[in-house]
Amino acid sequence: MPASAPLSLSQKFKLPNGLEYEQPLGLFINGEFVPGKERKTFEVVNPTTGKVVGEVHEATAADVDIAVDAAEAAFYDGSWSRMSSGERGHLLLKLADLLEENMTTLASIESFDNGKVFQQAKGDVYSCMGFLRYYGGWADKIHGKVIETSPGSFNFTKQEPIGVCGMIIPWNFPLLNCLIKIAPAIACGNTLVLKTADRTPLSALYAARLCQEAGFPPGVINILSGFGKTAGAAIASHMKIQKVSFTGSTVVGRQIMKAAAESNLKKISLELGGKSPHIICKDADIGRAVEWVNAGIFYNSGQCCSAGSRIYVQASIYDKVVEAFKKRAQAIVLGNPFDEASSQGPQVSEAQYNRVMSYIELGKSEGARLEIGGERHGSEGYFIKPTVFSNVTEDMRIMQEEIFGPVCAISKFKDVEDAIGKGNATKYGLASAVHTRSLNTAMEFSNKLRAGSVWINCYNAFNPALPFGGYGESGFGRELGKASLDDYTQTKTVSINLS
Ligand code: NAI
Ligand code: MG
Q1: Which residues form the Aldehyde dehydrogenase domain (predicted)?
Q2: Which CATH number applies to 277-463: 3.40.1360.10, 3.40.980.10, 3.10.580.10, 3.40.309.10?
Q3: Counting atoms of ligand 1 from 1, which one is nearest the CA of 198?
């Protein structure tokens, strides 16, 4: 919407925990905060209350062009192209230190804008520091090979940066999704234009200010607030962007791939949705398994691409596990994310609230048994009680589609073969988990489950060193680990004729 009075580029915010800070509101382009070319702004909502808390400047296609030009200039002619790999790594380490110093502010912003509970928001900032330090360490260890062919030639490869990278991220982990992409891209020597999700623009703008402070040259990192259909689509089809890294829904992932194909055949990596199986075998430690199952689905209000939303329990322990799991889920405390007692906040937006509630209605109409939850908590904000459906069959839509909320489906399996068959009965393939005391059973599952991650006796075992990404319609490309460096470099082969 066009603002009636021009919106300033920053504003004092006071958060529910009493924290006061200066929130940047502009687009971060070429090292500065600026208004959008079309002078548009959009509203920021606190999902805990459903109230508008402010506005930020909105990027349109014209701003994407300006940001891309700045990123391209930095890539080819600026101080970035002359900087050593070690200095690039040092900048990432410096940014990590600044995140650490600003931990409370960043986590508070995240809880405020996204609704996640404060302790979990702190965990996200902590993870971001880990990504920056891990890839800061890699920056001066990325190199090619000498390849022997014949005495008359000398051949070597170089791992070169790709150029200007576009990044489009979702709202479930706003800061984390930002830095999981920025850290490896920068380590490899790229420059970038990143668009945040329109529901959660605040933490990345604050991080942009920290990038300024860390001393990244202008144009290397550009961060835009904006919508998918305008700024996002402009990134996906931009002729000067050489690579797009996208995290979000499978529907939009397809559009990104199409836009890349129809524009300049830019490289893409897609981190999409999932419907991950969480399997409990009869020989598992049931108490511990139930804890993992609970965290696997209800962490971050169920808004995780990796959520363990299909729970399969071996028939002989099924009743016992369902009872223990219901009890555990009912102990979750919904409430203001800043309350220390809260373990679950609201869904991110009214649209997501409605979407999740419609899946709950669908589950009932499909004939699944609603064990617990299924309704709103409180009278304001977008809170949904942890919801468990049992007697769910493989053909039901709540067993097949990503719900992205605190809703899971439980079903039985007979033996290992049956569990593997059911676990793989999905178009997705992001994550999976198995609880068993048998090493052989664990190995059989890890060999046969078709998913990018198999977690044994744990869940969401994320670490900067461990690659994460999808099989099937969960996408391609890997984030984290050394594998991510492959996504942000390209191989050049040089052959010298010595004869
Ligand atoms: P979305 O996929 O529409 O949004 C993700 C990002 O893509 C946002 O930054 C958005 O602005 C951008 N975008 C949207 N349309 C675009 C386009 N045509 N071109 C370029 N960029 C575009 O996800 P949304 O609508 O926020 O959530 C809907 C559902 O998607 C969720 O209920 C969930 O099932 C799934 N989702 C999955 C995520 C994951 O991490 N796997 C994250 C977010 C959503
Ligand atoms: Mg918000």
Answers
A1: 34-494
A2: 3.40.309.10
A3: 11
